[in-house]
């Protein structure tokens, strides 16, 4: 059996498909229940009940929503660029899925354990902006277009500080491999020595996923619903799924870079009984809870405040912190020398 | 066999999309084909084993440069009939430039001689190093001054762009954030008891900010000029 899977072409292809499904199926179920979790948590924070009719505790609500969305009519505006209009949601959705190829869920346990994993994640997450930009332009609607432009400016701005935060983590790791980044946190998670960077990264992740309080691309109060105002039915559903999958992805990135990925909090007995993937899921759930908590707590930023925060606060701060990290590691001789061994 | 197949797929799509960049009627489609081209170039780097360059190409060109391209091109208001009007006039000049470039290319390629042993030389110069580490050593250790000089050139270009586009206008309102945060309810809010049937316009108007409204504006931006200016604007509106 092992012979078939590892040494024949068909076996390898089947194995690859199975690995991919093993990541994507839990991810999609996770997305479905994330929508429910968001509604339940926000309901609890606002002293409401939340969805509780479909199934026990409303557990089937997500599927009811999905079925409703699928059976709605797809409306394409008459002035829209049809091909791009339909391409944009597919792009958003598939990019959100693609990035999961490199997320390690255990020691070396990833669909593709590549050497430049973190750069791959950065590349894929920087592509997310195209879905919104194309959707905004192809809709031929002023609200959608403004939403698309806003999202482009916002995501490009916050990628800069995300990049610098990642660089300061990489300085302490000495490798671009995500598995090495997790293993470097065996003794102490990076969220403790780099606490300010952890906060900067988390806030930038909120902006990168267009979540409240940075959800200006969809700003209901001024842009109706922003870049997907003209979308309906399954096309809207794909945007919706992509957005939530991106939230989970960003939470996974926060967990891997700062919260020790699949490592247990302490390397001693009661903690090591749980396998790595469970720990990663716990950490992702914690981050998602904070995402929702922030949404229920803070009002939306004004656009100039958003830009000011990105360029005038986060960028200089993370730059200074990066230089300080490099200087500290150099002065104490802690700079990792192991990097680059293939 | 599979690497060759992947190479030819990437190369074909790259050439086709590069052709589409210059033939597409719609400039937005052109930029999107350009992005597809960048992607396939990154794919070619991957096939060649240069995974760091591949990722960098996607992050820098697709993730940042092309976004700004698209950003600008989408906002252009292009009249296609007007674009075609000048075609007759510019065609000879274009053909001349194209012809010269084509002849130059043929001359360059005709005299191109491959060094006899390059095809056999090993691709990786530093054994045991990933290409990320090898590039890092080269750029940041051996050629650090050239690297800094490149950065300086980019900085000059950036400052130039800012100088060209920065205009001082008082139509926008910029705030002093720390003063804005220090405002209290007493500084901003005024409750007025209106007698029944009377209009707020007769009692001082809607816009009645206290002085904190003017204090938080950055000097030179809208609303920093004091009470009278804002009053005039309100009356004018």
Automatic annotation (TrEMBL), chain A:
The chain crosses the membrane at residues 12-34, 55-71, 83-103, 115-138, 158-176, 188-207, 223-241, 248-271, 277-294, 314-335. Pfam families: NADHdh. GO terms for cellular component: plasma membrane. It comes from the Bacteria. It is an enzyme of class 7 (translocase). It catalyses: a quinone + NADH + 5 H(+)(in) = a quinol + NAD(+) + 4 H(+)(out). Its EC number is 7.1.1.-. InterPro entries: NADH_UbQ_OxRdtase_su1/FPO, NADH_UbQ_OxRdtase_su1_CS. It is a multi-pass membrane protein. Signal peptide: none annotated. GO terms for molecular function: NADH dehydrogenase activity; oxidoreductase activity, acting on NAD(P)H, quinone or similar compound as acceptor; quinone binding. Keywords: Cell membrane, Membrane, NAD, Quinone, Translocase, Transmembrane, Transmembrane helix, Ubiquinone. It is found in: Cell membrane; Membrane. GO terms for biological process: aerobic respiration. NDH-1 is composed of 14 different subunits. Subunits NuoA, H, J, K, L, M, N constitute the membrane sector of the complex. NDH-1 shuttles electrons from NADH, via FMN and iron-sulfur (Fe-S) centers, to quinones in the respiratory chain. The immediate electron acceptor for the enzyme in this species is believed to be ubiquinone. Couples the redox reaction to proton translocation (for every two electrons transferred, four hydrogen ions are translocated across the cytoplasmic membrane), and thus conserves the redox energy in a proton gradient. This subunit may bind ubiquinone. PANTHER family: NADH DEHYDROGENASE SUBUNIT 1 (PTHR11432), NADH-UBIQUINONE OXIDOREDUCTASE CHAIN 1 (PTHR11432:SF3). Belongs to the complex I subunit 1 family. This is NADH-quinone oxidoreductase subunit H. It comes from Acetobacter indonesiensis. The lineage of its organism: Bacteria, Pseudomonadati, Pseudomonadota, Alphaproteobacteria, Acetobacterales.
UniProtKB/TrEMBL annotation, chain B:
Its main location: membrane. It catalyses: a quinone + NADH + 5 H(+)(in) = a quinol + NAD(+) + 4 H(+)(out). It is a multi-pass membrane protein. It is an enzyme of class 7 (translocase). GO terms for molecular function: NADH dehydrogenase (ubiquinone) activity; quinone binding. The chain crosses the membrane at residues 6-24, 31-50, 56-78, 90-110, 145-166. NDH-1 shuttles electrons from NADH, via FMN and iron-sulfur (Fe-S) centers, to quinones in the respiratory chain. Couples the redox reaction to proton translocation (for every two electrons transferred, four hydrogen ions are translocated across the cytoplasmic membrane), and thus conserves the redox energy in a proton gradient. Belongs to the complex I subunit 6 family. This is NADH-quinone oxidoreductase subunit J.
């Amino acid at each position: 059996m092992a012979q078939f899977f590892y040494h024949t072409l068909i076996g390898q292809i089947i194995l690859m498909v199975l690995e991919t499904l093993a990541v994507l199926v839990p991810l999609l179920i996770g997305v479905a229940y994330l929508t429910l979790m968001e509604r339940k948590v926000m309901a609890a924070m606002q002293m409401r009940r939340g969805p509780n009719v479909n199934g026990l505790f409303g557990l089937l609500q997500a599927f009811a929503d999905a079925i409703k969305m699928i059976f709605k009519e797809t409306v394409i505006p008459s002035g829209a660029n049809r091909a791009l209009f339909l391409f944009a949601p597919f792009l958003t959705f598939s990019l959100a899925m693609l990035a999961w190829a490199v997320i390690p869920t255990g020691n070396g346990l990833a669909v593709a354990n590549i050497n430049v994993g973190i750069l791959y994640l950065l590349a894929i997450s920087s592509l997310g902006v195209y879905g919104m930009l194309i959707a905004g332009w192809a809709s031929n609607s002023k609200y959608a277009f403004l939403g698309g432009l806003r999202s482009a400016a916002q995501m490009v701005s916050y990628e800069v500080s995300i990049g610098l935060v990642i660089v300061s983590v990489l300085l302490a790791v000495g490798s671009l491999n995500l598995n090495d980044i997790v293993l470097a946190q065996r003794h102490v998670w990076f969220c403790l020595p780099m606490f300010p960077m952890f906060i900067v990264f988390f806030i930038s992740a909120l902006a990168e996923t267009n979540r409240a309080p940075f959800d200006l691309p969809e700003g209901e109060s001024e842009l109706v619903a922003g870049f997907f105002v003209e979308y309906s039915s399954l096309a809207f559903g794909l945007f919706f799924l992509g957005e939530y999958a991106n939230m989970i992805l960003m939470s996974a990135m926060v967990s891997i870079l700062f919260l020790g990925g699949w490592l247990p909090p302490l390397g001693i007995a009661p903690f090591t009984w749980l396998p790595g993937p469970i720990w990663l899921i716990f950490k992702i759930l914690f981050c998602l809870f904070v995402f929702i908590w922030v949404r229920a707590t803070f009002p939306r930023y004004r656009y100039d405040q958003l830009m000011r925060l990105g360029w005038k606060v986060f960028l200089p701060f993370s730059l200074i912190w990066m230089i300080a990290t490099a200087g500290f590691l150099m002065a104490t001789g802690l700079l990792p020398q192991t990097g680059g061994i293939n | 066999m599979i690497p060759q197949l992947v190479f030819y797929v990437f190369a074909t799509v790259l050439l086709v999309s590069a052709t589409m960049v210059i033939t597409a009627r719609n400039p937005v489609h052109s930029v999107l084909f350009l992005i597809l081209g960048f992607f396939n170039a990154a794919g070619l780097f991957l096939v060649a084993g240069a995974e760091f360059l591949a990722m960098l190409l996607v992050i820098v060109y697709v993730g940042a440069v092309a976004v700004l391209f698209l950003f600008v091109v989408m906002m252009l208001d292009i009249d296609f009939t007007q674009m075609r009007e000048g075609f007759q006039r510019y065609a000879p000049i274009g053909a001349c430039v194209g012809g010269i470039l084509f002849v130059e290319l043929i001359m360059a390629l005709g005299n191109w001689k491959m060094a006899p042993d390059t095809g056999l030389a090993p691709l990786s110069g530093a054994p045991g190093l990933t290409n990320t580490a090898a590039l890092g050593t080269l750029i940041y250790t051996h050629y650090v001054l050239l690297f800094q000089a490149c950065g300086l050139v980019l900085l000059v270009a950036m400052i130039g762009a800012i100088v060209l586009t920065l205009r001082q206008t008082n139509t926008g309102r910029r705030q002093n954030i720390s003063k804005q945060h220090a405002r209290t309810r007493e500084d901003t809010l005024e409750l007025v008891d209106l007698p029944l049937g009377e209009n707020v316009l007769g009692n001082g108007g809607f816009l009645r900010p206290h002085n904190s409204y003017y204090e938080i504006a950055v000097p030179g931006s809208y609303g920093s000029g004091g009470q009278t200016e804002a009053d005039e604007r309100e009356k004018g509106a």
